[in-house]
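Ops channel
N.P.: pipeline sanity check, posting one input/output pair.
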């Protein structure tokens, strides 16, 4: 009688099914969450650097210094005069 396994009751089958469903759902959710976290960590900074910031670069209309700004109105680092950006070109603010 060594080859004949014991009969399973419906309660045992139900409990094994609950454990299997819980384990498999935990594995799938944890793998999915891990992949989502990796994608977010990698693509988050790239997206924010390329999409969120617009940088204006050119020559100061007051002194000719090479300037870079992130707002429609900013200040030259050298001469401290205000610069306005309109139509992708720099203009003096008097």
């Amino acid at each position: 009688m060594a080859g004949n396994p014991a009969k399973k009751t419906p309660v045992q089958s139900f409990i094994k099914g609950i454990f299997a469903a819980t384990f498999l759902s935990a594995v799938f959710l944890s793998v999915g969450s891990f992949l989502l976290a990796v994608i977010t960590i990698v693509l988050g900074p790239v997206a924010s650097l390329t999409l969120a910031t617009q940088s204006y670069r050119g020559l100061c209309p007051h002194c000719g210094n090479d300037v870079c700004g992130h707002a429609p109105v900013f200040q030259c680092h050298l001469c401290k005069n205000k610069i306005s950006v309109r139509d992708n070109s720099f203009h003096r603010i008097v």
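N.P.: looks fine end to end. The chain has two domains: 6-53, 56-92.
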